[in-house]
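Title: Prediction job returns without error message
Component: structure pipeline
Severity: low
Priority: P3
Assignee: unassigned

Description:
Job completed but the reporter wants confirmation the result is attached to the right record. Sequence as submitted:
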Amino acid sequence: MTTVSFSRCWKKSLLFHLPLEGNGRQKECATQALLLQPAPLALSPAPFPQAGEEKESRSLVTRLLLSLLLFLAVATGAWAAPGAVELSELQVMPEGDGLYLSAQMHLAPGPMVEQALDKGIPIHFVADAQIVRERWYWFDGKIADEKRYFRLAFQPLTRRWRVNVSSQPILDSGLGVSYSQYYDSLDEAMRAIGRIARWRIADAAELASSARQTLRFHFRLDTRQLPRALQAGTSGQSGWTMEVERRIDLTSEAAK
């Protein structure tokens, strides 16, 4: 059989699928076409993973799960419920030697603050009372600026809560000159911090002016007094937010 006849038989067998029946010429072409067709691929089942490969895949799944749990923990901390400060009463009382402030606040720390306290980390609060005088030709002038500092800490040996109050910042390295009091529960300690009575914030001579004067009262949790390792984690987290602010027009109050 020549090369030309062989190629012709091959084309016919592929185009018309010649059967093995018929005359001798057709049988010969069909037989040659079947012999020249490529053998079908043998599909074998995938081999089972070896012991090393199975251990590596388990390790990868474990790392993925741990990363997911870490992300959820960070996200939960970032969206933790913030603490609440409700200012129910704020009064200013002028007397002979100056101006006195009294305030009543309800403090409800958030879960993150309570966890820090339970671990023995002190929490600091700051109450700021500023009196400014309006000036039409320049920025408002500051007449008085008084601050009161609070430090709350849990004492694990006695299972009691200690509150320190001072007119100067209270450092953990040394409490300095401060007034301290112990309480049996966190609620009692919070009530003591939220109660300010007869706080002298300005001298009488500083208030003797006909210009409009305004009191700016601001109470907040001071995150700058936290340990440095914890300060980095509090940035932008609402769980560490505890503050309230209020203003009083002293000119209208004096006219009453």
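Comment from assignee: result matches the submitted record. The two ends are 127 Å apart (CA to CA).
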